[in-house]
Amino acid sequence: MSTNRGIAYIKPGVVEVQDIGYPKLALGDRKCNHGVILKVVSTNICGSDQHMVRGRTTAPEGLILGHEITGIVIEKGSDVEFMNIGDLVSVPFNIACGRCRNCKEQQTGICENVNEARPGAAYGYVDMGGWIGGQSEYVMVPYADFNLLKIPNKDQAMEKIRDLTLLSDILPTGYHGAVTAGVKPGAIVYVAGAGPVGLACAASCHLLGAAVVIVGDMIPERLAQARSFGCETVDLRKDATLAEQIEEIVGVPEVDCTVDCVGFEARGHGASAGVEQPATVLNAAMEVTRAGGGIGIPGLYVTGDPGAKTEAAKIGNLSIRIGLGWAKSHHFHTGQCPVMHYNRNLMQAILHNKIKIADAVNVQVISLDDGPKGYADFDKGAAKKFVIDPHGMIH
C-alpha cells in the first residue's frame, strides 16, 4: 500500500512531520472523478501558514498544512479530460469549482461550492473548507481541468522550478496587490513588509514598470534582500516617520500607491516598533498615499484571532482611520488573490526571463524532514522563502 507523509500543525509553535493517509480520489464518501493525485515536486512555507503556527487563528490540531503546491499528475479521475499522467502542474492555492457565478467571473478566491462555511477555500488552511494540505509527498486536487496550470516542457521547466513553484501563491498574490493598488509605468510605490509576499510584490512592481519601489520593514536582513534587486528601503524602527523617510527618497512625503503585505500581525513604527498594532499598516498607507491613489491589501486579515490584544481585534475589528482614506478619495482592494487570473502570464514571464522571482525572494530548498526547522527559522524573520522538496527532485 502506498504511503504518504505531511507536516501537521500540533499546537502553537509546534509542527511535525507525520505519516498521513495516501490521498484518494474521493470527497468524503463520494467519488471525485474530476480530481487528480499529484506527486508533490515542491511545496512552500507561507507567511499565512505561520499565522496558524503561531496560534493566531482557530486552526485545529492535526491540520496538514500547505497551500503552495507544484506537482506531477500520477493518477486522474474518469472525468479529467485535459490533464495527463506525467504533466507538471502548478496548483493555485484557491480551490475553485469553475461552475459557480464567482468562478465564471474569475473570482476564484471566493468560489461558492468548495467550502460549506463561506465562499473561498484553500488547501491546508483554517476555515477554508477542511481540505488536506500539500506540504506532503502526495496530494489530491479536485476540479483538475479547471484548477491546474500545465507547465510546458517539463525538463526545461524543472530548471526553473525554484521560480515556477512561486506561481501557486506569492508571485500572483504580490502581483495582485500591485495591480489592485494601481501600479503602472512610472508609479512611485510603497510596499509595506519585506517578507516573501512583500518582496514578490516589489518585483511585480518592477515588472509593471514602476519608477521607484520603496519597501518598509523592521528586519535589516529583509531590507537588504529588497535592495538586492533594486528597491529603495525604509527602516521602520527609526524615529523618522514613514512620510519623512519617503521624502528623503523621492523628494515628497507621499507615493502614488501602497501595498499592504503585512496584515493583522502588524507592529508599530518608530518608538512603538515591536508593539503589536494591527491597524498600523493600513493607517500608515492612508497617510502616505496621495489623494486619488490606491491601496492594495493582499496582507491577511482574519475574522478570528485568539491571540489578539483586544476583544475587538479578536474578531477582526480594527481602529482604522477610514475618514482619512475617504477624504483623500483612496480606493482599497482586499481579499485573496484569484491566482488563476494571473498565473499563466506570470509563468510566461518566468519562462522567458522577464522576472527572476526566486532570486528576489531568496528561495532556499529544504527537505520535508527539515520543514519544522524551516518554520522556526521563518518565524525568526529569516530573509528566505523556504521551498520544501519532498522527493529530492530539485537539483
From TrEMBL:
What keywords does the record list, in alphabetical order?
Metal-binding, NAD, Oxidoreductase, Zinc
Q: Which cofactor does it need?
A: Zn(2+)
InterPro entries given in the database record: ADH-like_C (IPR013149), ADH-like_N (IPR013154), ADH_Zn_CS (IPR002328), GroES-like_sf (IPR011032), HCHO_DH_non_GSH (IPR014184), NAD(P)-bd_dom_sf (IPR036291)
Q: Which residues form the Alcohol dehydrogenase-like C-terminal domain?
A: 196-263
Q: Which GO terms describe its molecular function?
A: oxidoreductase activity; zinc ion binding
> Looking at the Swiss-Prot or TrEMBL record, what is one Pfam family this protein matches?
ADH_N
* Top-rank taxon, per record: Bacteria
Ranges for domain Alcohol dehydrogenase-like N-terminal come to 35-152
Instruction: Kindly give the SUPFAM superfamilies that the UniProt entry links to this protein.
Output: GroES-like, NAD(P)-binding Rossmann-fold domains
- Chain segments annotated as transmembrane: none
In the record, the note on similarity to other proteins reads:
Belongs to the zinc-containing alcohol dehydrogenase family.
The protein's name is Glutathione-independent formaldehyde dehydrogenase
